[in-house]
Design brief:
Elements: E1 2-5, E2 14-21, E3 33-37, E4 42-43, E5 46-52, E6 58-67, E7 73-78, E8 89-92, E9 96-100, E10 105-109, E11 116-121, E12 124-142, E13 145-165, E14 169-180, E15 186-197, E16 202-210, E17 219-230, E18 239-243, E19 248-252, H1 267-272, H2 285-291, E20 299-306, E21 309-315, E22 323-328, E23 334-338, E24 343-348, E25 357-362, E26 368-376, H3 394-397, E27 412-422, H4 428-439, E28 444-446, H5 448-454, H6 468-490, E29 506-507, E30 512-513, H7 529-540, H8 543-558, E31 571-572, E32 584-585, H9 586-589, H10 595-601, H11 604-612, E33 637-640, H12 641-659, H13 662-676, E34 687-691, E35 696-698, H14 708-712, H15 716-727, H16 730-743, H17 747-753, H18 770-780, H19 783-794, H20 796-799, E36 808-811, E37 815-818, H21 824-841
Antiparallel strand pairs: 1-7, 1-28, 2-6, 3-4, 3-7, 5-6, 8-9, 9-10, 10-11, 11-12, 12-13, 12-17, 13-14, 14-15, 15-16, 16-27, 17-26, 18-19, 18-23, 20-21, 20-25, 21-22, 23-24, 24-27, 25-26, 29-30, 31-32, 33-34, 34-35, 36-37
Helix pairs in contact: 5-7, 6-21, 7-8, 7-21, 12-13, 12-15, 15-16, 16-18, 18-19, 18-21, 19-21
Length: about 850
């Protein structure tokens, strides 16, 4: 099996982690794995299982290695093992955990407000007192004036765990909550993971902030990480550097530039280049005398206040004004500070994409400088997590329920920060290389053909342009992705709370998305664009697709979901505000939306999220998704076979395959076995009573409220097809095929097959069922059924997908490129079902242009 870099390769020895799928039966638990470069060099590899097949063989493995990046291609072979010369040491006591990478010694506290106790190189401390900072803003009205108060908080450790301890990679997980510095109040829990690799001088941190405040009172003004750095040397050799749009902006605490000495012997040029400057020679005595009279600048900061603007400024001390240095567009998010003997850089991933962010150093010319990475800059306005209105708009704006349930209580946001410690002053080129690695997904990946062959990630097709019609479909799939990639940039869908999501429906009159119309604004996983993007990556291996899918995973799994509180385990449906809709449902948070990222990257935060939703069905006991139509007098609560039970199946499959906990397999089988006994099997319902205690679907008749298009629009088919692959249950496979075939039967056939109960009006939006119809056609090897599936995708009147996709340029408040008919619902489902159908019934694809297909579905 071959691996290659997704795109960027590290220039220095760098620790990385990635995942590999395995075909059923191909890898036993006791097998060892070796990583070998194309030149024959074998590298030590740390390996662990992430998921299993039902027969006990390994389905996904996680790997860690420390690689130079001088090789493009690697091969993985079985039953070989290479021992590492450099072993990561992890040891702990009641108060601290120590991690010795071989180059640096890290001490992590188990309690208190200092997370990183110290970082040492040998016996010398090079950083200490790493902590988390938070600023809360409160507001009150008094005599017609608004009084604003800012209160500082700092992170207090409540729990520390050595999550992974291996020869090459160690992971420390820290939990805590922010405590008011001047009082006892607490606010906003956090989780912080620290990643260490053998023989490296870096640490990666993954920071998750949870919101548990009152949005009417608690406005968050700043969120960040701070580290103290002891520096030595003269003020003119204290250097600060920021990565700008393309290069490095460099300054010193005290400039060697005076009225009479502009660039003596090129010393000022060397200083600004970040080099150590010596002024011991006699010829430099006058320069030294004059330069010592120059101002000493102690504080520097770069603030990214929008996706299109940052400013760099500096000041001498806290009591003095900030002076603007320069402005730019999109900073790459790295700050370096250094003295005469060592330095440190900090970088925030997706720095400008998740504005308002900032990088800051204070006390540069003192014995202990402070370096701060702000995920939310204190110089920006405070977070405002209130709803956009004090009422709902159900009829006019598709907001779900009259009841107001707009609440950010329990949502989260995850950020990544990298720290790198230097013994010698790095060149600007080295810093640029480091930030390019940080901002790109530094990842080893398999070939699409291997992912496909393993059958470890569901049913999807490889890119295929072997016939004219397949080539046309691939062209449309590419155009759909490229449109959204460009639209994210054109519409500036960026920001701490927004980056990763896209909008729901377009308004061609305003040449604007319906950002302000209730349920037509943010998408919030509606009709599973996540799965479309992850399938698109698996089949193509493209970095730009991965970046978009990664951002959507980070956003939708954190911001759109509830991690504690009343709605724990559920997500919030699409709305003007991400957490604004009254519909809180499992379809938004289901594991199948996010697990691809975990398996491809080994990311432990997303693994936590998969575990978090394993029992999401328990939330239905307090919030019935069908409360608009049914009371809970007869049943504890209700669940539609889809999207509710389908989402539970996705969650249970994830938990079963990752942990081998048979309880979750049994939960899946409980529902399947119930459906097998019912009159119309999977077509029964679609709404059932539901008992969260037993996972039982409680039959309450057929053709009831719910709508069969809801059954298959939210990732249910993808979860069920994957379950079919795993279980090998032929009756379950027949039930999936039966559902797909039934969807495209005539009204008369539906009535005849269901004793007059089921009819066309219950089966709207047939394009959403095209993947299920394709599954039926493939299982039955039925050409006519396959043609019907393709009709659903290619007939514009049925699919509501205008093909071919054509972008138009219009002049509005500025020049806009648009697709007037676009909706993310339709695009996501059309692309997803096309990818599935190409796999299942690609051989039956008609060779025709994109035009109205003459075969019409029979009307009512």
């Amino acid at each position: 099996m071959k691996l290659h870099w997704l795109n960027k390769r590290p220039k220095d020895s760098t620790g990385i982690s990635w995942g590999i799928p395995w075909e059923r039966g191909a890898l036993k638990r006791e097998d060892t794995i070796c990583l070998q470069s194309s030149s024959g060099k074998k590298s030590p590899l740390q390996t662990w299982p992430m998921a299993f097949w039902p027969d006990g063989s390994v389905k996904w493995t996680g790997h860690a290695a420390v690689l130079q990046g001088d090789e493009e291609i690697y091969e993985v072979s079985l039953n070989e093992h290479v021992k590492s010369d450099s072993i990561l040491q992890v040891r702990g006591n009641n108060h601290t955990i120590e991690i010795d990478t071989g180059k640096l010694l890290f001490s992590i506290n188990k309690q208190g407000n200092r997370i990183i106790n110290y970082v040492k190189r040998g016996t010398k401390t090079i950083a200490f007192d790493g902590k988390l900072n938070l600023i809360r803003e409160t507001r009150r009205k008094e005599d017609g004036s608004t009084i604003i108060r800012e209160d500082p908080f700092e992170g207090i450790i409540t729990y520390v765990e050595i999550e992974q301890k291996g020869p090459l990679r160690a992971v420390i997980k820290i939990k805590g909550i922010h405590q008011e510095v001047s009082g006892t109040g607490t606010l906003l829990p956090f989780e912080l993971r620290l990643y260490f690799y053998a023989n490296t001088e870096s640490v990666r941190t993954v920071h998750t902030l949870f919101y548990d405040g009152d949005p009417e009172k608690d406005f968050i003004k700043g969120v960040g990480l701070e580290l103290s750095v002891p520096l030595t040397g003269e003020a003119w050799n204290r250097n600060v550097r920021f990565s700008g749009d393309e290069g490095i902006y460099s300054e010193a605490a005290q400039l060697l530039l005076t009225r009479r000495h502009r660039n003596v012997d090129g010393l000022f040029q060397k200083q600004i280049a970040g080099e150590i400057v010596s002024l011991k020679e006699e010829k430099h005595s006058q320069l030294l005398e004059h330069a010592k009279q120059n101002t000493i600048w102690n504080n520097f900061k770069l603030q990214q206040d929008s996706a299109d603007h940052y400013r760099i400024s500096k000041r001498t001390q806290e009591s003095s004004a900030w002076v603007e240095s320069t402005h730019g567009t999109r900073a790459k998010g790295l700050l370096y500070i250094g003295g005469e003997d060592h330095g440190i850089s900090v970088g925030i991933r997706n720095f400008w994409q998740k504005f308002p962010s900032a990088l800051e150093v204070s006390d540069l010319n003192k014995s202990e400088a402070k370096l701060k990475a702000w995920f939310w800059s204190p110089d920006a306005g405070a977070m405002d997590l209130r709803h956009y209105n004090n009422e709902t708009h159900v009829v006019s704006a598709y907001e779900g329920f009259d009841e107001m349930r707009s609440s950010p209580f329990g949502i989260a946001n995850t950020s990544e920060v990298y720290l790198h410690f230097y013994t010698d002053r790095p060149s600007n080129e080295e810093l640029l290389s480091k930030i390019e690695e940080l901002q790109a997904p530094l990842l080893l990946v398999c070939e699409p053909e291997y992912y496909h062959h393993s059958k470890a990630s569901g049913v999807w097709s490889l890119v295929d342009r072997t016939t004219p019609m397949k080539a046309k479909l691939e062209e449309q799939l590419d155009k759909a992705f490229h449109f959204y990639k460009k639209e994210i940039e054109q519409r500036r869908w960026y920001g701490y709370w927004n980056y990763g999501d896209v909008m729901h429906t377009y308004d061609p009159v305003r040449h604007q998305w319906m950002y302000d119309i209730g349920g037509f604004a943010w998408q919030n996983t509606e009709l599973v664009p996540n799965i479309w993007l992850w399938y698109s990556f698996l089949r193509s291996g493209r970095e730009d697709v991965f970046i978009m899918a990664e951002a959507m995973t980070r956003h939708t799994s954190e911001v759109d979901c509830y991690h504690f509180g009343e709605y724990a385990g559920l997500g919030s449906r699409h709305n003007v505000v991400h957490w604004g809709c009254g519909c809180k449902e499992a379809r938004i948070s289901m594991a199948g939306l996010h697990k691809y990222y975990y398996f491809l990257t080994t990311d432990e935060r997303v693994r936590d999220l998969l575990t978090e939703v394993k029992d999401a069905d328990q939330a239905l006991a307090n919030l019935d998704p069908m409360r608009e139509f049914y009371s809970t007098e007869q049943f504890p609560t209700h669940a539609r076979v889809g999207p509710d039970w389908a989402a539970f199946c996705s969650n249970w499959l994830s938990e079963w395959e990752r942990t081998e906990n048979q309880t979750y397999k049994e939960k899946i089988m409980t529902g399947i076995n119930t459906l097998k006994k019912l009159p119309f099997r999977l077509l029964s319902g679609p709404t059932f009573g539901y008992d969260p205690k037993t996972s039982d679907l409680l039959y309450m008749g057929d053709g009831n409220e719910g709508g069969y298009h809801m059954v298959i629009a939210f990732g249910g088919p993808q979860a069920w097809m994957e379950i079919a692959q795993v279980l090998g249950d032929s009756e379950w496979e027949d039930m999936l095929a039966e559902f797909g075939e039934f969807y495209v039967k005539s009204n008369e056939e539906k009535l005849a097959r269901s004793n007059g109960i089921l009819h066309n009006k219950l089966f709207s939006l047939p394009m959403l069922a095209s993947g299920m119809v394709a599954y039926a056609a493939a299982r039955k090897k039925d050409k006519n059924l396959a043609e019907k599936a393709w009709d659903l995708l290619l007939d514009e009147e049925i699919s509501q997908m205008v093909l071919p996709i054509k972008e138009e340029e219009v002049q509005s408040w500025r020049r806009i490129t648009e697709v007037p008919s676009i909706t993310t619902n339709t695009t996501s489902q059309w692309c997803l079902n096309t990818i599935v159908s190409l796999e299942l019934i690609g051989e039956y694809l008609p060779n025709q242009e994109f035009k109205k297909v003459l075969v019409q579905q029979e009307s009512d």
